[in-house]
Amino acid sequence: MALYSQKVMDHFTNPRNVGSIEDADGVGEVGNAKCGDIMKVYIKVRAGIITDVKFETFGCGSAIATSSMATEMIKGKTIDQAFELSNKAVVEALDGLPPAKLHCSVLAEESIKAAIKDYYDRNNIPYDPKKFPDCAHCEGCGVG
Ligand code: FES
Q1: Whose CA is nearest to atom 2 of ligand 1?
Q2: Ligand 1 centre from 97 Cα, in Å?
Q3: Which of 24, 52, 114, 140 is the most exposed place for a label (fewest CB within 10 A)?
Q4: Residue 77 DSSP one-character state
C-alpha cells in the first residue's frame, strides 16, 4: 500500500483555499512544537456562517493536505460546526495518514480554533475559555 492516500496526494499537490483574506473576521496562527512548522488560518464570517476561509502554511505535505481538506470541510458551516471539526475527522476524510504524520493534522484543527477564538474576541462574543486550551503546540494533546 502506498504511504499516502490518493486524497492526501491530491490535496498536497493541488491544495484548496491557499492564501490570505485581507479583511478577515478572524485569524489564527499556531506552531507545531514537534517540527517547528507554522500555520495561519483566515476566516470570513457572515451571520454565524464561515463564508470564506484561507490558509498559509510553512509546513510539510501532510500539514498542507490536512489544512486543505479542513478548510474545505468548514467552508459554509456554522462557527459551532467548524469548532467541532477534529483532526481525526480530517484525517479520515483524507483516507488516513501514516502514524508518524498524524501530529501534522493537529496544526489545521488548532489554527481553525485559534481563528474562531480571534473572531469571538474581536466581536466581544462571550465563550468558555476552557474550550480553548493553550494549544499553540501539539505536545500533550495525545495525537501523533
Ligand atoms: Fe511539521 Fe508535518 S512535519 S506539520
Answers
A1: 104
A2: 12
A3: 140
A4: S
